[in-house]
Design goal:
globular; alpha/beta; Nitrilase/N-carbamoyl-D-aminoacid amidohydrolase; 6-stranded mixed β-sheet; 7 helices; 302 residues
Length: 302
């Protein structure tokens, strides 16, 4: 099975949700006009609001059902009724009851009410509070790392720093994912001449997660400048062999296309059965975690 992915490496206007929603409508129209198949559109972390919102997050945060309806309405206004269903991954600030979260929505957009739906919401598990980051001051952290069913099989999502902790990718792989989507808002850090070190770091992270677990990894990063901090872009798609299929430019808006051949997952796992080894050794690993005082049953699947 082939799964056609489009990444939009976008530059939102900080705090201006409607402006970004209008630009998203233009993207939907562009996809509708294209002659190439698109199964899923993947946008970055906080794709419609900008990242460094600080206290302004309260003004743009939305309940997920409201945000989904606004995106769905935008899709329907800008595409023909013959447009095939489109899955989307969009990072957004979520308001849930009295709490705020850095979240990402996976949804199916359709002109048919029976098929349009919210599939899953992931809330950022690791909120950075170092360097230029102070997320935990403004939003609550998520408590779950779940897999969910899609037309391309089981998928999972992580947000930015979530992916820097190897255990998160392992949890999703153990839960059977074929693809992990990682929306990112990563400012440039670590310069060596013209090179930006965290571009290389993001590529290595994505490739390592993909190769170790023989899955596809789709990483979508913001671009633009907020408060003097420039986001790196350089979004990538890595295949189950750890190879980069496509790579976006640094710091520039773009649209990337990649075709995921899901049959490659079985081939990669046969040639490098690391996930199978992890599954077979999991009882011993759980015992070791318990011996270290970690409640492993709450972290890893039995």
């Amino acid at each position: 099975m082939e799964w056609h992915v489009v990444i939009v490496q976008t530059r939102p206007k900080k705090g201006d949700y409607q402006h970004s929603l209008n630009r998203l409508a233009a993207t939907f129209a562009q996809l509708d006009d294209a002659n190439e198949p698109t199964d899923i559109l993947v946008l970055p972390e906080y794709a419609l609001t900008g990242y460094f919102l600080q206290g302004g997050v309260t003004e743009v945060a939305r309940p997920v059902d409201v945000m989904f309806q606004e995106v769905l309405d935008s899709y329907r206004r800008s595409t023909r009724r013959t447009m095939p269903n489109l899955d989307v991954v969009i990072g957004f600030p979520e308001r849930y009851q009295t709490r705020l979260y850095n979240a990402v929505l996976y949804a199916t957009l359709s002109h048919d009410d029976a098929q349009a739906r919210i599939v899953h919401v992931h809330r950022k598990f690791f909120l950075p509070t170092y360097g230029v980051f102070d997320e935990q001051r403004y939003v609550n952290r998520g408590r779950h790392i779940d897999a969910f069913e899609t037309k391309a099989g089981v998928a999972g999502m992580l947000i930015c720093e979530d992916a820097w902790h190897s255990i998160t990718g392992a949890i999703l792989a153990l839960r059977g994912v074929n693809v992990i989507y990682i929306p990112v808002a990563s400012p440039a850090r670590g310069f060596a001449g013209e090179a930006v070190s965290n571009i290389d770091r993001w590529h290595r992270l994505s490739q390592s997660i993909a190769e170790e677990h023989a899955i596809f990894v789709v990483t979508s990063n913001l671009v633009g400048v907020e408060g003097g901090k420039g986001f790196i872009g350089s979004s990538i798609v890595a295949n189950p062999f750890g190879e980069i299929l496509v790579e976006g430019p640094a710091g520039e808006e773009c649209m990337l296309r990649a075709t995921l051949d899901l049959e490659e997952i079985a081939i990669a796992r046969a040639s490098l059965p690391l996930l199978g080894d992890l599954e077979s050794h999991l009882p011993d690993l759980l015992r070791e975690l318990r011996a270290a005082g970690i409640p492993a049953e709450e972290v890893l699947p039995q």
